[in-house]
Predict the structure.
Amino acid sequence: MNGRLEGMVAFVTGAAGGIGRATALAFARAGAGVVVADRTEETNQETAALIEQAGGRAVAVGCDVTKAQDVQAALQTAVDEFGGLDYAFNNAGIEQATKQPAAELSEDEWDRILAVNLRGVFLCLKYEIPLMLKQGGGAIVNTSSGAGVKGFGNGVAYAASKFAVIGMTQSLASEVAPFGVRVNAVCPGIIAETPMRFALERAGAAAGLPPTQERAKTIPLGRAGTPDEVAKVVAFLASDAAAYVTGAAYDVSGGHWMS
């Protein structure tokens, strides 16, 4: 633990694995107390245990980001356990389970994806912002996607949700900048070894798409990314090193989403 964020408090959703877990560990390594939130409680507890084993401070809380009361309770834990909220990484998200044309997508599937990927981020922002305003500042990072800047066929719900995250990021960044709160987003590309990547791999195989390993060969850097590589960008955006950065959507795709 290097102490760079000593005394600071971070809140991470979707922290049970993948990018969320890597980022929670990155915040903890820098010295922050971390509230790790996820609806998958067993693996979420594992994230907290990993932080504590490394000498950090963490509290695991069960949280369904589609439920306002869960989000409020999780953030209250940050206040009760660590005294406030300095950083938030709104990362919880789900994939579109089936790759299919918009006309064939069920309304239930549309609602399911928008509930987590859009409503979930909104609820986190809604209850994080007042805590940061109360203490005079903070930094928030939202997880969008390469699919939030460039749409693709047979993924209308997922793309819609991730485009909307960037819109919310820009809107909130403008709204709260005068009060010392910065809001940015990351747009990961193909990131290996994450729960979402495993789910996307299954959906892609069912739709006849080539495996991730083959698609990664088309990335300019020639490989898939890692959760740690995304976590480093999130940690940068949350830190004072990015003190003059707000409303940005950072491409973390190895060049995959270059226009």
Remarks:
- The helical segments are 18-29, 41-53, 68-82, 107-135, 156-176, 195-206, 212-215, 227-238.
- The chain is about 45% helix and 15% strand.
